[in-house]
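Incident log, structure service

09:12 report received: a user says their structure output differs between two submissions of the same chain.
09:20 pulled the input from the user's history:
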Amino acid sequence: MRCAALIAAATLICLAGAARAEEFGDVYAGQVYVKDVCAPCHAVQPEASMSPKIDAPSFAAVANTPGMTRTALTVWLTTPHPTMPNYVLEHQDLDNVIAYILSLKND
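09:34 re-ran on a clean worker, output below:
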């Protein structure tokens, strides 16, 4: 009985984690978005280190910045920057872009 309860609890934890991962955005949709909107200035592909605009960091560099989190990216992407165009991302686009950037993080 105790073993069954542990298995049930572990299953619920795994399912909750999978559901939570889905709500954080779609990596593929984020990649499509950044190729269209961000690539003129930023290197957006995982293997690209040089951005078209020399002062624009690559997305891999952003992802691998120490302390980079979903929260930090949310603030970064929703705060105006003098060197960036003032894009206003829809909520789903924001989640997708963040999911894509975080997918570039080296483990």
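09:41 both user submissions now match this output. Likely a transient worker issue. Closing.
09:42 reviewer note: Residues 26-103 form a domain with the Cytochrome Bc1 Complex; Chain D, domain 2 fold (CATH 1.10.760). The CA atoms of residues 63 and 102 lie 5 Å apart.
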